[in-house]
Specification:
Strands 2-3-4-1-5 form a five-stranded parallel beta sheet. It has 14 helices and seven strands. The N terminus is likely disordered. With 398 residues, the chain is of the alpha/beta class.
Length: 398
């Protein structure tokens, strides 16, 4: 009986041992699987941290070696960061840019520029104000309408008057010398100037002086010079008080006595008091008409108008030299030569005079009257010997 019981307990023990062993094997296998999963999770986290460069989290470290059969993590190549340009400072210096101090010279220069601009602008406004007093635009229109055949001379006179009358501060007076043959419009221009400046200023600031009328006798030349000196002094003082420039027009200067020319020469100098420097003098004469006539006839073939022809500057120099020999007063003057008048200009004179007298301006009648006047012939052009001098007399005979 005992032998049978022992044989029954042996299989029972073996079954209990195998069940425990199987349980232990199962536990060990589960532990190994758990370890393998944990290692795989650690590798995945480290790989993710390497891919994300910005991540600064700590890496998971384990003492276990990599299990057999697992694949090593691939090497992730990092891209090189581009170095930023940095300003290098010495160790002992301050690590920030120096503060730029404000330059006072720039502020002063800017202020000076503004002041200069305002001064220039004010000066331009003053120039316009001075010119508006004398209405030179109206004078220019009148000259174009009433003076024939002297376009270059009119433009020259307007330019000289504009430059001089644009300001009230001068270092010498303006002296205009109108020279040319008889009948070309010099005296007519003098009357227009006198009429215009009397209208824009006052009669007391305009003097029109005719030599054969005011001082015909040579024995009274000294007395005439003294009387003229007192009148000029009075007018320049009045012009100084009113801040206006007086105008003196002297006609028939070829008959002017030496005493009067000497006095005028002293008035034209720069070393005078201020009131004598602010004045306009106009000298009208036919001195130098021979040089002008010769020049016009020699250059009749030129298509350029008189004053714009080749050699016009040489003519002015030649006139100034010959006039200076006559008297030094012309050394201080601006010479304005007047040209000979062509036949078309003579017809314009007849038309204007007949219109003023109330005659019907018949073109055939005007051409007939113009044909009765003597002319120089140069090529295909005809120049009047006496200008428009005979026009008034012929119209009065109608």
């Amino acid at each position: 009986m005992e032998g049978e019981s022992q044989t029954d307990e042996a299989p029972a023990r073996m079954s209990s041992l195998t069940s425990k062993l199987q349980a232990m094997i199962r536990i060990r296998r589960k532990y190994q699987v758990f370890k393998a999963r944990r290692a795989e999770l650690a590798r995945e986290q480290s790989r993710t941290a390497m891919l994300h460069r910005g991540s600064t989290g700590p890496e998971i470290f384990t003492f276990e070696t990599t299990a057999a059969g697992t694949v090593a993590s691939p090497c992730v190549c990092r891209r090189k960061k581009k170095r930023k340009s940095r300003v290098m400072f010495p160790n002992s210096g301050r690590k920030y840019l120096p503060v730029q101090e404000r330059n006072r010279a720039k502020s002063c220069l800017f202020l000076l520029s503004i002041i200069v601009f305002l001064q220039v602008y004010n000066a331009i406004e003053n120039l316009d104000d001075h010119l508006q007093k004398y209405d030179l635009e109206g004078l220019e229109k009148t000259l174009k309408r009433e003076v024939f055949g002297q376009k270059a001379a009119m433009e020259n006179i307007i330019d000289l008057l504009t430059d001089y009358l644009s300001t009230y501060v001068h270092n010498k007076p303006l002296v205009l010398s109108l020279n040319g043959p008889i009948g070309v419009g010099k005296s007519h221009l003098g009357r227009i100037l006198a009429r215009h400046f009397r209208s824009v200023t006052r009669d007391q600031l305009v003097l029109q002086y005719f030599m054969l009328h005011h001082c015909p006798l040579e024995e009274k030349a000294t007395m005439c010079a003294q009387d003229l000196a007192s009148r000029i002094t009075e007018m320049v003082n009045r012009g100084e008080s009113e801040e206006r420039i007086p105008v003196f027009i002297f006609d028939e200067v070829e008959f002017m006595h030496k005493e009067i020319l000497d006095f005028l020469h002293s008035c034209f100098q720069a070393n005078q008091t201020n009131e004598f420097l602010n004045a306009v003098y106009v000298l009208i004469s036919n001195i130098g008409q021979g040089e002008i006539t010769k020049f016009v006839l020699q250059n009749s073939s030129s298509s350029a108008p008189f004053g714009r022809q080749r050699g016009s500057h040489e003519l002015v120099k030649q006139l100034k030299a010959s006039l200076s020999k006559y008297h030094p007063v012309w050394k201080e003057a601006d010479i304005v030569p007047f040209s000979l008048l062509e036949k078309a200009h003579i017809m314009d004179c007849f038309l204007d005079e007949m219109t003023q007298e109330g005659f019907y301006p018949d073109s055939s009648h005007i051409e007939h009257l113009a044909g009765e006047i003597s002319y120089y012939t140069a090529g295909d052009k005809e120049y009047s010997m006496n200008g428009c001098k005979q026009v008034v007399a012929k119209v009065n005979l109608l």
